[in-house]
Amino acid sequence: MDKKLMKSADEAAQRIIEWGESQKLETCFDRATRLKPCPIGSTGACCQVCHIGPCRLVGKNAEEEITGVCGAPLATVAARHWLRMAAAGTAAHSDHARDMALTLYAVGCGETKDFEITDVKKLYRVANILGIPFGDGRKVEDVAKDVALKFIEDFGRQNGELNYIKRAPKKTQERWRKWKVVPRGIDREIAETMHRTSVGVDHDPDNLMLHAIRVSLADGWGGCMISTDITDILFGTPRPIRAEASFGILKADEVNIVVHGHEPTLAEKVVEVSTEPEILEYAKSKGAKGVNLVGMCCTANEILMRHGIPTAGGYTNQELGIMTGLVDAMMTDVQCIMPAIVEISKHFHTKIITTSYKAKMKGAVHIEYDEHHAKDVARQIIKTAIDNFPNRIAKGSKESIKFPAIVGFSHEYIEYMQGGRWRASFRPLNDAIMAGRIRGVVGIAGCDNPRVTAQGAHRYLVNEFIRNDVLVVSTGCGSAACATAGWMTPEMALEYAGEGLRQVCEAIGIPPILHLGACVDNSRILTILSAMAAEGGLSDEIGGMPGVGIAPEWMSEKAIAIGTYFAGSGVPVIFGGDSPAGASEEVSKKIMIDLWLERFKGAFHFEHDPEKMFDLAITYIDNARAALKLKKYEPGRFGTERVLLDMAARRELEKGAKPHAGL
Ligand code: MSK
Questions:
Q1: Would you say the CB of residue 223 lies under 6 angstroms from ligand 1?
Q2: For residue 445, which atom of ligand 1 is closest to its CA?
Q3: Which of 391, 423, 447 is the last residue of a domain?
Q4: pLDDT by residue (tens digit) across 14-72?
Q5: Among 37, 87, 94, 647, fewest CB within 10 Å belongs to which?
Q6: pTM higher than 0.85, yes or no?
Q7: C-alpha span between 634 and 437 (Å, rounded)
């Protein structure tokens, strides 16, 4: 098929989409074709904060002359819209983090027997950062309780600074203090957003956008970082593990349960109890050979990197998984769950099981999660899936394709692998960048999107970057796009990476695309950048590093929060498609690019064309190298690129060719 016409760059996904079309089954791809985005709302020109409107701020006049009925100019409206999106994204990650903190507290108090501290070393590392005493005979549970309480303080603090602000390089912190964007408490910044963006309050676009940075920093250095750390403490800090990806991981003769969403707590328990002898016996009694767990979206990333549970992919694959006809139950927790999965499940036997009181869907079975008896809830979910196994019908687009993936590169492991237990550091990475073996580092994150060839921009960019000696770190559905392409293996470096990057990957034994985890694990990138700054030889702050963050197919408000905290921390950020503040040049260019570069050394760009995204990222990287007076990057300086590709492999590479740019 003409690549331009492909709805997903994931070939297995594309086959299921085509089968669905033949069956007249509607998916997000059809809806995206049918429902065009509103040109006014998509660029932030629609004001809905009072009921005089909604006002549509359109017209041919100069930007400052276009106003709503109250006189709010376009820039104010666009900035308010952006700020609310950033606050919503922060709320999502941070509410997830709050639940993690409450679970840790319950463990510390002995209120739940279903969870325990798995990584005591990580607990102590975190306690050390937070100034909490540990060791010397102190009970691990008491340390956990104090750590949890310290984190819980971050949500309700009224004044002062978030605990983890001190993890950023000093210079980065100074910038934040100078511009008064250091977050006080996570909930305070979110509530203040709603106040400032309500009718008749803050009308200064620059002031509004500074608060967008503040609320988003509360996400990155608060919600996301807290969540990452507690998840590591409770379930273990990830180390590389071999797993599999794509739809071929679903098994015809076993009970298939897909865990979908973002919060790892219940999914962890499902993993744990799924191998209990009684569960397996029960599955056999219904005619199944066993119980097969599979992940989707970011719950997938969480259990993928800790247990090697395979992933069926990211956001746009969720309906398609059900369309294989092999999913006996899809268990959802929170975030990025399409309500459409209930509708599509009606054409098959799949049971949709919601588990959070915050995220219910009409037509789904609800089995509510409670951390105090999590294993019982997990068993009930698995039994519901097993009971449903005999109801399978022949219908479905079965897929046998699956790929190996090496996943689970926590920042602790990346440090460890560069020097072993006693000399763990980021020195080798900094040295490789200084010498020009590695040109720079790019984080490819964010959602996949049915408005373009889903996953296509991810795959195109990843390919181009590693061929040009840029190390890629990935999270969220960006990771899923690489894993379902079969690209998350060390062999990828041998065959596709530029010579300098290949040599580094071979020396350290890593793939050129490092899977860092779920969306909240973008915080690991902040930690890595801070460690690189502390190591010396590059920039002494996050700003000025030869690194860029990219979300080529973003769709979620969470992505807006993530991009904004990266830009506010000093990283140039490039997103695909239209800016939700794009109607105002004052906001989208003067503030988010010019002013933010000057104040924070970060910027926020939007670009439709993946080739231009690549060029812009490379320009930022090369300019940063020049400003740091590093050796000029020269392709092939460390040997010419080895040609190891046979024709079949080349055709595979071709599949990652430039997707259409319609986002
Ligand atoms: S799941 S926020 S679609 S990355 Fe984290 Fe994927 Fe975007 Fe959700």
A1: no
A2: 4
A3: 391
A4: 999 999 999 999 999 999 999 999 999 999 999 999 999 999 999 999 999 999 999 99
A5: 647
A6: yes
A7: 9
